[in-house]
Structure of DNA-binding NarL/FixJ family response regulator:
Amino acid sequence: MAGTGPAADLIRVVLADDQPAVRAGLALVLSAAPDIEVVGEAGDGEEAVALATRLSPDVVVMDVRMPRLDGIAATGRLAGIADVLVLTTFDLDEYVFGALRAGAAGFLLKDTDADGLIGAVRLVARGEGLIDPQVTRALIAAFARRPAPPPSTALDALTVREREVLSGLAGGLSNAEIGARLAIAEATTKVHVSRVLAKLALRSRVQAAVLARELGVPPLAIHP
């Protein structure tokens, strides 16, 4: 999502957490980055949706457990308005699944350090998906416990190139990294990613990465 107005060169962020001290800490960390501006703070999901609708930020940093409207439901309402970076804890797999289905662009553990938080916001603002490695392991383990994975025929609609791009997503690669490995332009990679998401009826590259892992799609190989 692109910011507008005089601060269009900055990554505009709305923070949503029901604990004022947590919001203050997040704001302090993010405001220290020269390319990030915290434009609003919300204490619950309803307020987060209202603020994001009014302010059109690039990223909403969203807590999960909040009054009135939780972070999962709020994430679903923000589709097309802002990209959502969900803050979670390692033992809340069910919330991660909910946020994934709602179309969250990234998942980060709450105990991530300042550099990790700033880097995650930048990645999400660029349209790159992000799942904290510990969250990724939990997701894969939970998928492995499910009795019936989705049919591999879901991939039949993809071209050979699109399958290669999906392999890149499975490996957590950025568009630039996928393009470099496939010897195609980053802009072309972005088009392929969009087509993969459309054909698989997915809302984010994070969903694509998890689906690829679930279907056994190998990460993109490194060619010499």
